[in-house]
Amino acid sequence: MNYKINQRNKVLRAKERGIYDKKTVYEILDAGKIAHVGIIMDQQPFVIPMSYARVDDTIILHGALNSRICTSLIEGMPACITVTHLDGLVLARSTFSHSMNYRSVVAFGTARQIEDRDRKTKALESLVEFLAPGRTSDCRPPNKKELNATSVVEFKIEQASAKVRSGGPKDKQADLDLDVWAGTVPISQHYGDWQAAEDLKQGINFPNYKEGIK
Ligand SMILES: Cc1cc2nc3c(=O)[nH]c(=O)nc-3n(C[C@H](O)[C@H](O)[C@H](O)COP(=O)(O)OP(=O)(O)OC[C@H]3O[C@@H](n4cnc5c(N)ncnc54)[C@H](O)[C@@H]3O)c2cc1C
Fold first, then answer.
1. Ligand 1 center to 12 CA (angstroms)
2. Contact between residue 161 and residue 20 where contact means Cβ atoms under 8 Å apart
């Protein structure tokens, strides 16, 4: 199913790279950990990196009660959220044709505060599960004081676009004969070895969901 396409989310530049189906948008969101959340306050744009979780067609965000970004989102301010994966450098024969391989999403919508205590706890759990699936069944849940100190918002994705570039350099025909190396340098992110906290109690083993986080 596609997001509605109009002037706001229609990819104009390199339009063949624009994708609007929810499946692709969800895949790109689900492969990320950091979202950049953009708002405008008093004509000043702010773009703030935040952790997030996608739950169906919403993006869950949280922050301190009095943070500017959470206060603005709670007030129903329109926001724009982007998630980007850098998949490779594209080294072309001319400086002009250099590029990057990437998958990115731009999502538009508004957020509302989650006030109900059970929904708020669940939303906070979804943030932890998004980072480390299986983790919440292990951890102490938030207490009343912690819940009261935290704003949790759900951003409904009204419209979104994905843009994906893959493949090699697109040099001009006339440059193909140049004696310059050209190609791609793949980039991938991966987890390192788990390192126990210095103050970890004796006798605690790695959790069994560790296998799913690699
Ligand atoms: C890692 C990375 C590096 C990039 N580097 C550059 C750079 O150095 N210079 C440059 O000009 N461009 C770069 N781009 C592409 C850039 O994101 C824009 O797509 C491009 O600049 C066109 O911008 P525009 O406002 O003219 O887009 P338009 O095509 O006019 O944008 C219209 C709508 O298309 C959608 N859209 C646009 N870009 C994206 C996107 N990347 N992902 C999802 N939806 C999108 C949005 O919904 C937007 O509102 C880069 C992209 C990535 C992911």
1. 9
2. yes
Q: Give me ligand 1 centre to Cα 7, in Å.
A: 14
Q: Residues 2-28: pLDDT tens digits?
A: 999 999 999 999 999 999 999 999 999
Q: CB atoms < 10 A from the CB of 20, how many?
A: 18
pLDDT tens, position by position, 31-57 = 999 999 999 988 999 999 999 999 999
101 lines ligand 1 (CB under 6 A): no
With 0.85 as the threshold, say if the pTM is over it: yes
CA distance to 11, 48, 72, 116, per residue, from 63 (Å) = 31, 11, 12, 16
- Strand partners of residue 80: 38, 108
Query: Where do the domains of the chain lie, and which CATH numbers do they carry?
Result: 15-88+97-167 (2.30.110.10)
Q: How are the residues of the chain apportioned to helix, strand and coil, as percentages rounded to the nearest 5?
A: 20, 35, 40
**DSSP code of 3?**
P
Best CA proximity match to 108, nearest among 68, 59, 70: 59
**Both structure tokens of 40:** 């405008």
